[in-house]
Amino acid sequence: MPSVSGRTAMYEAVIAELDHLDGPDLLAPLVTGRLCGNIALISSFGAESAVLLHMAASIDRSLPVITLDTGKLFAEAIAYRAQLTALLGLTDVRVVRPDADALRALDAAGSLHRRDPDRCCHIRKVLPLEEALSGFKAWISGRKRYHGGLRTDVSTLEEDDGRLKADPLARFTHLEIEAYLDHHRLPRHPLIEKGYFSIGCAPCTVAGGSTDNPRAGRWSGLSKMECGIHRSPAPSCNSARPASDFR
Question: What is the pTM of this model?
């Protein structure tokens, strides 16, 4: 395995070469080039996930797709995951779940999200994803700048915690996402018609949002903006407080 400095140099070279590209033009050289076999796509199978998954499947259906099942998902989200997996012919979808011992020790009643949502996200999302990404040199996510908040300045490529991180849709607009879904006749998430613009765990997501602020329904009433898997510049642990505390 290359040294840390060697990996950094390789990532810097990839960034310099590909940072101007978007969408499938960025995905293809990452998935089939020097990172082939060492890159995974992280997907929530959420409101807009079909776009990135379709792009990836068009390049390589065997690309590892890691998805987190926190044990708190909407039933509609689980059904949509199965629907897209079959439709796109994805052959390596890895459903990752939190450690059972950690849940028994820290959230036996399943109510941790009510008193400490950051810690809940940490044991149900952050730690399982860290384990799932072990051995990969790079990962792909679906963040977009128009989602606002901490995502306003998302880079298409960056080094993050010793890995290359790619966001091929970072510069896509809402209209471009919708046009892609329509052009390829991709099914919408079943919760969209119920008023959800962004979809996370059921206890921490409410219907709402808009094209200008699609994540408004996530952790409603709290200052919390991210679950923690995107750690730069994610809020520090235990930082979620009622929004009124910041007025």
Answer: 0.84
Please count the other Cβ atoms lying within 10 Å of the Cβ belonging to residue 12. Answer: 13
Residue 89 buriedness (CB in 10 A; 0-12 / 13-18 / 19+): exposed
Q: Which residue is catalytic, options 201, 204, 227, 237?
A: 227
Helices 75-88, 49-59: axis angle to 10 degrees equals 20
Residue 227 catalytic?
yes
CA 210 to chain centre: 19
Q: What is the pLDDT of residues 164-174, one digit of tens each?
A: 999 999 999 99
Q: How far apart are CA 12 and CA 157, in angstroms?
A: 9
**Cα–Cα–Cα angle for 118, 64, 187, rounded to 5 degrees:** 80
Tell me the per-residue pLDDT of 7-28, one tens digit each, with 9 for 90 and over.
788 899 999 999 999 999 999 9
